[in-house]
Amino acid sequence: MSDDIFRDAYKPAEYNSNISKAKVYLTTCAINCDSPIVLVTSGGTTVPLECNTVRFIDNFSTGKRGSASTEYFLRRNCYVILLHRSGSLRPFFRHFDANMVDEAFSVDERDDLVVRKDSELGKNFRSIYDAYHKFRNKLLMIEFETCSEYLWYLRGIANLLTSYKSNAIYYMAAAVSDYYIPRDAMSEHKIQSSDAALDIKLFPVPKMLGHLCNTWSPEAFSVTFKLETDSTILISKAERSLQRYKQNLVIGNTLSDRRVRVTFISHSKDNVLKERLCETKGSDKSELEELIVDELLSSYRLWLSSE
Ligand code: 9Z3
């Protein structure tokens, strides 16, 4: 079962060209660099109910964690491959919304569209635009839609990153489905409606974290996120994940307060469980992702120096 998801039937249509882009990106931009190369995963995965997909199961993830973190990794001098759900929030562009059209721009006497320097939104737009241009060559974005596409790309990129050894960081913020429908059990065409209840059987998605941390890219620094809705089980579930997959760090969060607080959970060298709360303070304007990235990079440097 565990390799079924890597049957050709599930391979993303753009797989070969995207993996080639990743190769070129790594050889032209990031080769021989001293800065870390971070694979950030972001957004939710869909689970199609039909081969010719009309309906699918989805989840809540917006891609904010992954896209905001990407900006801070870039600002801290890292290279980033962002593996993200199509249509989820994207770094830099996430700041733009419809309000900007009226408040940030105006038309000058030559009929050119110009940024309004007298508006806060105009100034914001300009600084985001400048940051995007400054960092965009250090960023490669690859899109997925379904859970199987996500896993194909994860394995393909890990294959490339493995030679970067401890210079590679995995930052797994995507909300990956735990269940899917194998190709053989999926309806070929749109499921026809009827008056009867619809029974759908979902199968567990093969766990790939063990492969990632222990086989595909064993020398990298691996950070996974653990999401729960019941805060009383968060730490024990994170600890179980650490024992099972041996990643370097688990960042735990609960659905309701995931924008303001996370907990860093790891094992010390002598296997003692360590927990550190990371949260934004009420009046503090910084985004939680900035705090997460800074805390993570200092754990990473400590780990590197003890290697
Ligand atoms: C997370 O826990 C992320 O922090 C969120 C971010 C998905 C909550 P948004 O995209 O939300 O900013 O709206 N990601 C990992 C969730 C997950 O599926 N983890 C697996 C689990 O909990 C382990 S890899 O079992």
How would you explain this protein's 3D organization?
With 307 residues, the chain is of the alpha/beta class. The chain is built from 8 helices and 14 strands. The protein has helices at residues 15-30, 64-75, 99-103, 120-135, 147-161, 209-216, 234-245, 288-306, and strands at residues 37-42, 47-48, 56-57, 79-85, 105-107, 113-115, 139-144, 168-172, 179-180, 203-204, 221-228, 249-254, 261-267, 273-279. The strands form 4 sheets. The protein has an 8-stranded mixed sheet, with helices on both faces. β2 and β3 (56-57) form a beta hairpin. The protein is globular and about 65 Å long. The model has no long low-confidence stretch (mean pLDDT 94). It binds ligand 9Z3. Ligand 9Z3 is lined by residues 61-65, 172-173, 175-176, 224-227, 253, 258.
Could you write a compact summary of the structure shown?
The chain has 307 residues and is of the alpha/beta class. Helices cover 34% and strands 21% of the residues.
Question: How does the major sheet shape up?
Answer: 8 strands, mixed
Bound molecules: ligand 9Z3
How many beta-strand runs?
14
Specify the overall morphology: globular
Report the average pLDDT across residues: 94
Strand pairing plus helix content: what structural class? Answer: alpha/beta
SS element count, helices: 8
Order the strands across the largest sheet as they lie in space.
7-4-1-8-11-12-13-14
**Cα-based radius of gyration, to the nearest Å:** 21 Å
Distance between the termini: 36 Å
Catalogue the unreliable spans. Answer: none
